[in-house]
Amino acid sequence: MKLKVTLLIIFTVVALLYYVLPHPSLPTSSTITMFQKGMKNAEVLNLQHELSTLKCFEGTFTGIYDTNTVDAVKNFQTQNKLPIDGVVDIHTFNLIADKIITLKKVVVMIDPGHGGADGGTVSGNAIEKEITLGISLKLKKLVEALGYNAQMTRETDISLTSLTQPNGISTWETRDLKARASIINKSKARVFLSIHVNSFPEATAINGASLYYSDVYPQSKGLAKAIQTSLNNITSEGFVRQARESSKVGFLLLRRATVPGVLIETGFLSNQQERDLLMTEAFRDKTAKAILDGLLASKILEN
Length: 303
Ligand SMILES: [Zn+2]
Fold this sequence. Notes:
Blueprint: H1 2-20, E1 33-35, H2 42-53, H3 67-79, E2 88-89, H4 90-104, E3 107-112, E4 122-123, E5 126-127, H5 128-145, E6 149-152, H6 172-187, E7 191-198, E8 210-213, H7 218-232, E9 247-248, H8 252-256, E10 261-268, H9 272-278, H10 281-297
Helix pairs in contact: 5-10, 7-10
Bound molecules: zinc ion.
C-alpha cells in the first residue's frame, strides 16, 4: 500500500511539473512556413499570380516576396478569417490552392458563331465568322484571367458540320449547330455564350446588341438581361448605340443545350458605323469586356 501511495505521489509531481514547467514542443502544421518576406523564386511568382486571380494582389509580378506580396497575403487572410501575419503558412497555402481549384472547376463555354465554309453574315471584307472568333478569343482571355476554365467550341476558322453524322434530313447548318450543342453539353459548363453578328439590310439605321435566351433554364433570362444592359452601355466616340432588349426565342442551340446560356448578337453589319467599329480591335475589346461584366453581374458563376 505504501509503495502505491509513493508511486502515485511521484506520478502526480511529475505530471504537475510537466504541466507547469516550460518544455520544447514539436512544430504543429500551422507553424510550417511556406513563403515569407524576402524569398525569391518561381513559386513566389506563381503565388503572386494566384493572389492576383483571387483579387488580392496589386502590383508587379516580381517573383520576390515583397511588401506588395505581404499586403496581398494579408488581404487574403483577412477575407478568409485566417490569422493576419502576411506569412504563407500551410493553412494559408492550402486555402489559396483550394480557392484556385474551385474557380478552375467552373467552365465557361464560348461559342464563336459560324466558321469555315459558313461565313455567316457579310458586309464587304467584314465577315461574321471572323468577328465572332476575334471577340471570343478576347473573351476567353478575360475569363481565364479571373481563374475560370474558359473553353471554346472552335478556336480556328472551321465549321463543325463534319462532327455530326449526315442523316439525310439535317442540313449542314443543323449539323453544325448540333455539334456545337454536343460540345457544350459534354463540357458540363456552368454557362455557354454563343457569339454572333446581326444584319438587317432592310433598315440600315438599326444598330446595337441583341441578347436571346430560351426558357429551358430560368438563369438564362437573368444572364441575357445582365449582358444586354452591359452591351447597351458601350460608348464609342461619335456613335450612340441603340439600347435594345433581350428576347426569348426557340433557337436550336438554345433548346438543345443542357446548360444555361445565351446567344449574343454583338451588333449589326448592315449599319455602316457599327460595321466599321466591329472591324476594330478596340471595339471588339470593349464588346468582350462588356460581355464579361454582364456575365459577372448575373452572378451565374458564383456558388
Ligand atoms: Zn450568326
